[in-house]
Write the structure tokens for this entry.
Amino acid sequence: VPGVGAGRGVYGYYTIDDIGTIGETGANIYSLFVQDNWSVNSRLTLNLGIRMESEDIPSFRQDIAETAVHFGWGQKVAPRLGFAYNLFGDDRVKISGSYGRYYDWTKYELARGTFGGDVWTTRYRSLDDPDISKLSRANLTGRNLWDSASDSFKDHRVPSFGSDVVDPDMKPMSQDAYNLGFEYQVRSNTVVGVNFVRTNLLRTIEDIGTLINGSETYIYGNPGEGLATTAFTTGLTAPFEMPKAERSYTALEFTANRRFSNSWFLGGSY
């Protein structure tokens, strides 16, 4: 901390922290989707669709910028592809599968921290009087130890705007999902099946913190891409390559279902 240790008061130093969330904001997300079934023949049915979105990530500092990030219709295009195939044409054996790309809405928690909603400042003052009743944000007793200004402070939440902070090539968070299933009707009231599920995260959005002259600032982008390819550091730590976000899920599910009389039904999966 600049000054602390090199310049102290008679009794050391004290800090004043202002922490909170201020302001109000809002934005709209518009969605458009089309999806329908198509019976190619008596055995094959296709389910085809597409979804598009337009999303604004708002600013909590309207005096600086009204909108922090905008994702247009062309940046959030999500296809939906599915099929069901009646293998022998007698409805006893069915093979089905699907693929979809899914985009997440950007949560306001990230926007609050980067675009002015969360406030956290720390003032460092010399402690020259042991009477703690005199210490307050209004009095500001003692000398400013942060730098030579009369009332400067360390800012842990510097509002971050501009192409040098918000990656202009940032892409929305998305993941792909695959499903492949097989069902066999053993008897008129009993069906067994197996399903394969795979999901894979393509990218996410993060506010990536770094220290500039002692104050915490952020790069807002996709980890491992664009502005967030390299983690810039200060001090003795050398810059290093920023890893991409990874999250995958693979599952194999076995199911068995049986219908009984009087509307009873029994099902199990493993």
